[in-house]
């Protein structure tokens, strides 16, 4: 029961090897049976994973949800969770053999030798406590200093991760800080004792692109100072900016591993290739992203989207939209100020901006779910806002919407078919048989099988749910679909399929899309024209190519510069560090 | 009509004092130079622009006063409108005989208590008396109700607070120890909580008395006011409440254990117990705190059971005697007091809310 750890072996210190994992296997018991009971089933979620990392390097583990990358990361700090059974030929961390460690010894390693950064500091830091307390706690747990020196050190650490006014920030709770500041605070709590190894599990997911760039820079700085970083991510462009080594995981196993530049520019495994192809960007414009998409429609049959006639008649026009709200402190805030745009028939207008830029409020006014304080929206040249709900009702079906998380907009007790039937007009399809046929037709249009129609929303995968939401939006035969972060919660390969589907539907049905996203790559891939928003203002508006290739406004340039780039095959730029 | 004129003024005094010192019953009378000075102080404060927080606090106090006023009005109406002549009742109690009385016999009593006045006059006088802390006189004990209550309130408050503490201690220990552990452990604990919540207090009290006082002799059979005499009554009231608290806390606790901040703390090197006590517990107590506001009032009225089983002094016994002998002023006084305690308890709950979850301050 000794609580001390043996000293790091001399050999390991010499090679500065921080991580040596050979044939790691993790399995979980599922079901309600007791462990070892005959009816229990073991799920093998990490299979023969081998990893290594030297000081001052970054190893990225890439994969989609369910690939086992997070379980792998947690196993590295001895917290795989639940009923996990861990086996490995070698499990060496920061010079310690950790395979046989007891809980007390693990606790000495965590925080001191290994720092762990989770995503979304709003919930990864205790939401009821000031962030300074969380950092002090990391110090206290390892017996560092006294109360006063810990408080001082916490402020110092906040300053070192680039938090301005650290004395004030230390006393604020995560919900009182911006997304970037609280993520920095979370990182400060993980690196408080200067661990040799930092594991970051999706550290920039849910952050705005400019903030993401700052956090990546912070991590790069730590790497330069000799910290080893294990970066877990689903985002290949984030990985490209930071990683020296990349391991691609699929179904619990590593399918490809090697130097970052080699893996990202010359992928050997077809899964890696598919992942890279699925990333929407400037280069993918007008081409399908997913394999299925390519099989169904060849690139040549696609309309060349940049050559759209500019004089397409507008279906939706917004003129000088303004909306303000009164905050809890009684101060009036203008969230959207004088925003105007036009959406042509069969066109996609991308609205891009960071959180709080007013893009979702603009979308709600375009949907006439929210009355603007000033300005108006016209639909097919007729008034769309500023009229009574009754006057709008007959045309309500012309504008529909798909949200980021459709689950909350489905009745969980209805199956997919009933959800669709509910959205089908009883005037257009008077008989039961006609409506059922229409539901089947809609399901076919979005690539759902007959078997999916009998399922409930919770039994569908994220991609299938989003397809169902799209089918429901199509049901009333709209002219315009507002897509509010509609693909933001999806894995990259699923996102690719849904984006392909949206492109196909637009072409078949002549739909107009108001496409709202924080993801510049997605916006560039999908949009004919782009509206850039910041702090409620329309900063810049123009064709997608103009906005992305020759932005006029400083803010647009800043936004584009923050975007992590994949090294593109031939045009190999500076790989590694950006 | 003199009392009518003074009542708004005194009412305001009481309100301001509650604002100043949390409405302790000792200073609620609101007389003397001290009170006048304070009134002046808060009048000056009125001229300052009120912050939203202050306005909210003021609103809450007004609501609280409204609740007490409603309870008082209700008890007044019961006294005045219930069948049976109050003068007859009083006279019968005085003489110890139950019989019809003649008008001549009743006249002096009606005059003394003002039972002949119009109802509205009686009501306003009642409110005026209430505002000055005068709850009337007991028909049976011939003492002011306020002093009857004041004599006996101490042991009851002690018992109530002790029961609440016992309930919290039990439920927190059980939750921290068993929530989100292996299935059999948490299922067993959760089952025990359900059973505890369903235990009738009088049955539990008798069992505790028989086992721990009579058979084992660990505690006195007739509870005095000392600590040893407090244990069994507090357990009698506290164990069922612990069951309720445990049930509302457990779900929240298990939810909080799954939150990323709990994992974050583990990854800093904190142990499982540390995470439970230092992080998760605080996230799970809000529903229990809400319940405690209700429980404090309910324990106060439930104290009668524990007091009679363990022969403790306290308001419970007074209430039982008063109900049996139809001593209406005492019953009404206790009802108003319990209403006031509910109100104070809920103000404390609101205060505790923002201490536990500071985010609520802004919403």
From TrEMBL, chain A:
<dbReference type="GO" id="GO:0005524">
    <property type="term" value="F:ATP binding"/>
</dbReference>
<dbReference type="InterPro" id="IPR027417">
    <property type="entry name" value="P-loop_NTPase"/>
</dbReference>
<dbReference type="InterPro" id="IPR003593">
    <property type="entry name" value="AAA+_ATPase"/>
</dbReference>
<keyword id="KW-0547">Nucleotide-binding</keyword>
<protein>
    <submittedName>
        <fullName>ABC transporter ATP-binding protein</fullName>
    </submittedName>
</protein>
<feature type="domain" description="ABC transporter">
    <location>
        <begin position="316"/>
        <end position="560"/>
    </location>
</feature>
<dbReference type="InterPro" id="IPR003439">
    <property type="entry name" value="ABC_transporter-like_ATP-bd"/>
</dbReference>
<feature type="domain" description="ABC transporter">
    <location>
        <begin position="21"/>
        <end position="276"/>
    </location>
</feature>
<dbReference type="Pfam" id="PF08352">
    <property type="entry name" value="oligo_HPY"/>
</dbReference>
<dbReference type="Pfam" id="PF00005">
    <property type="entry name" value="ABC_tran"/>
</dbReference>
<keyword id="KW-0813">Transport</keyword>
<dbReference type="InterPro" id="IPR050319">
    <property type="entry name" value="ABC_transp_ATP-bind"/>
</dbReference>
<keyword id="KW-0067">ATP-binding</keyword>
<dbReference type="InterPro" id="IPR017871">
    <property type="entry name" value="ABC_transporter-like_CS"/>
</dbReference>
<dbReference type="InterPro" id="IPR013563">
    <property type="entry name" value="Oligopep_ABC_C"/>
</dbReference>
<comment type="similarity">
    <text>Belongs to the ABC transporter superfamily.</text>
</comment>
TrEMBL record, chain B:
<keyword id="KW-0472">Membrane</keyword>
<keyword id="KW-1003">Cell membrane</keyword>
<comment type="similarity">
    <text>Belongs to the binding-protein-dependent transport system permease family.</text>
</comment>
<feature type="transmembrane region" description="Helical">
    <location>
        <begin position="330"/>
        <end position="356"/>
    </location>
</feature>
<feature type="domain" description="ABC transmembrane type-1">
    <location>
        <begin position="153"/>
        <end position="353"/>
    </location>
</feature>
<feature type="transmembrane region" description="Helical">
    <location>
        <begin position="61"/>
        <end position="82"/>
    </location>
</feature>
<feature type="compositionally biased region" description="Polar residues">
    <location>
        <begin position="1"/>
        <end position="13"/>
    </location>
</feature>
<keyword id="KW-0812">Transmembrane</keyword>
<keyword id="KW-1133">Transmembrane helix</keyword>
<dbReference type="InterPro" id="IPR000515">
    <property type="entry name" value="MetI-like"/>
</dbReference>
<feature type="region of interest" description="Disordered">
    <location>
        <begin position="1"/>
        <end position="53"/>
    </location>
</feature>
<dbReference type="InterPro" id="IPR035906">
    <property type="entry name" value="MetI-like_sf"/>
</dbReference>
<dbReference type="Pfam" id="PF00528">
    <property type="entry name" value="BPD_transp_1"/>
</dbReference>
<protein>
    <submittedName>
        <fullName>ABC transporter permease</fullName>
    </submittedName>
</protein>
<feature type="transmembrane region" description="Helical">
    <location>
        <begin position="191"/>
        <end position="214"/>
    </location>
</feature>
<feature type="transmembrane region" description="Helical">
    <location>
        <begin position="157"/>
        <end position="179"/>
    </location>
</feature>
<feature type="transmembrane region" description="Helical">
    <location>
        <begin position="226"/>
        <end position="245"/>
    </location>
</feature>
<feature type="transmembrane region" description="Helical">
    <location>
        <begin position="285"/>
        <end position="310"/>
    </location>
</feature>
<keyword id="KW-0813">Transport</keyword>
């Amino acid at each position: 029961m000794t609580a001390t750890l043996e000293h790091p072996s001399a050999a390991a210190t010499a090679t500065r090897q921080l991580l040596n994992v050979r044939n790691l296997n993790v399995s979980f018991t599922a079901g309600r049976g007791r462990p070892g009971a005959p009816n229990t089933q073991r799920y093998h979620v990490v299979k023969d994973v081998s990893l290594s990392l030297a000081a001052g390097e970054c190893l990225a583990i890439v994969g989609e949800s369910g690939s086992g990358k997070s379980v792998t990361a947690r196993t590295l700090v001895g917290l795989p969770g639940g009923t996990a059974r861990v086996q490995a030929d070698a499990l060496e961390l920061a010079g310690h053999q950790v395979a046989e460690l007891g809980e007390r010894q693990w606790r000495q390693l965590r925080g001191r030798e290994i720092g762990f950064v989770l995503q979304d500091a709003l919930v990864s830091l205790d939401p009821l406590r000031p962030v300074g307390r969380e950092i002090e706690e990391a110090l206290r747990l390892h017996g560092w200093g006294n109360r006063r020196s810990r408080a001082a050190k916490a402020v110092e650490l906040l300053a070192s991760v680039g938090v301005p006014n650290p004395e004030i920030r230390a006393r604020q709770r995560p919900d009182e800080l911006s997304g970037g500041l609280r993520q920095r605070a979370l990182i400060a709590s993980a690196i408080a004792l200067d661990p040799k190894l930092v594991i970051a599990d999706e550290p920039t997911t849910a952050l705005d692109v400019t903030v993401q760039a700052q956090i990546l820079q912070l991590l790069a700085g730590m790497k330069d100072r000799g910290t080893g970083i294990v970066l877990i991510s689903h985002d290949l462009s984030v990985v490209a900016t930071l990683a020296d080594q990349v391991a691609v995981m699929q179904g619990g196993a590593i399918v490809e591993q090697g130097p970052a530049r080699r893996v990202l520019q010359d992928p050997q495994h077809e899964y890696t290739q598919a992942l890279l192809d699925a990333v929407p960007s400037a280069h993918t414009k007008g081409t399908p992203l997913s394999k299925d998409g390519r099989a169904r429609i060849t690139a040549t049959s696609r309309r060349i989207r940049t050559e759209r006639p500019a004089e397409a008649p507008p279906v939706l026009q917004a003129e000088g939209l303004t909306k303000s709200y009164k905050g809890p402190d009684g101060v009036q805030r203008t969230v959207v100020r004088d925003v105007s745009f036009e959406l042509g028939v069969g066109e996609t207008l991308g609205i891009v901006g960071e959180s709080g830029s007013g893009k979702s409020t603009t979308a709600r006014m375009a949907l006439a779910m929210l009355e603007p304080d000033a300005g108006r929206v016209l639909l097919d040249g007729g008034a769309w806002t500023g009229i009574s709900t009754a006057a709008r009702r007959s045309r309500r079906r012309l504008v529909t919407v798909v949200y980021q998380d459709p689950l909350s907009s489905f009745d969980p007790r209805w199956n997919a078919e009933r959800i669709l039937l509910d959205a089908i007009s009883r005037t257009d399809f008077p008989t039961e048989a006609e409506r059922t046929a229409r539901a089947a037709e809609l399901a076919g249009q979005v690539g759902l099988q007959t078997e999916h129609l009998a399922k409930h929303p919770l039994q569908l995968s994220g991609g299938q749910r989003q397809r169902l939401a799209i089918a429901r939006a199509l049901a009333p035969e709209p002219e315009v679909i507002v897509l509010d972060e509609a693909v933001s919660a999806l894995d990259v390969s699923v996102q690719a399929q849904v984006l392909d589907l949206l492109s196909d539907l637009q072409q078949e049905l002549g739909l107009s899309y108001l496409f709202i996203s924080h993801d510049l790559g997605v916006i560039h891939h999908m949009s004919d024209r782009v509206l850039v928003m910041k702090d409620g203002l329309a900063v810049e508006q123009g064709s997608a190519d103009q906005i992305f290739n020759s932005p006029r406004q400083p803010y647009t340039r800043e936004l584009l510069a923050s975007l992590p780039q994949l090294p593109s095959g031939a045009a190999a730029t500076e790989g590694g560090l950006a | 009509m003199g009392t009518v004129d003074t009542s708004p003024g005194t009412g305001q005094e009481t309100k301001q004092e509650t604002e100043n010192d949390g409405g302790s019953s000792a200073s609620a009378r609101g007389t003397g130079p001290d009170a006048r000075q304070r009134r002046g102080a808060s009048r000056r404060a009125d001229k300052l622009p009120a912050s939203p927080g202050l306005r909210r606090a003021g609103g809450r106090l007004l609501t609280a006063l409204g609740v007490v006023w409603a309870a008082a009005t209700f008890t007044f109406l019961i006294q005045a409108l219930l069948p049976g002549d109050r003068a007859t009742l009083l006279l019968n109690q005085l003489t110890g005989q139950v019989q019809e009385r003649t008008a001549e016999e009743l006249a002096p009593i009606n005059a003394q208590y003002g039972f002949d006045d119009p109802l509205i006059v009686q009501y306003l006088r009642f409110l005026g008396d209430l505002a000055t802390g005068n709850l009337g006189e007991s028909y049976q004990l011939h003492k002011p109700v306020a002093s009857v209550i004041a004599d006996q309130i101490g042991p009851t408050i002690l018992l109530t607070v002790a029961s609440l503490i016992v309930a919290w201690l039990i439920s927190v220990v059980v939750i921290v120890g068993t929530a989100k552990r292996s299935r059999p452990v948490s299922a067993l604990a959760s089952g025990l909580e359900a059973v505890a919540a369903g235990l009738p207090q009088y049955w539990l009290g008798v069992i505790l008395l028989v086992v721990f006082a009579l058979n084992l002799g660990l505690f006195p059979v007739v509870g005095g006011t000392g600590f040893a005499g407090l244990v069994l009554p507090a357990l009698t009231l506290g164990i069922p409440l612990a069951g309720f608290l445990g049930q509302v806390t457990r779900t929240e606790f298990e939810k909080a254990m799954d939150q990323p901040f709990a994992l974050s703390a583990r990854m800093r090197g904190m142990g499982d117990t540390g995470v439970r006590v230092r992080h998760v517990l605080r996230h799970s107590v809000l529903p229990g705190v809400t319940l405690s506001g209700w429980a404090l009032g309910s324990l106060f009225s439930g104290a009668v059971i524990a007091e009679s089983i363990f022969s403790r002094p306290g308001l419970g016994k007074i209430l039982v005697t008063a109900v049996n002998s139809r001593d209406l002023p005492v019953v009404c006084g206790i009802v108003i007091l319990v209403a006031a305690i509910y109100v104070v308890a809920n103000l404390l709950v609101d205060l505790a809310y923002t201490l536990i979850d500071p985010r609520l301050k802004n919403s």
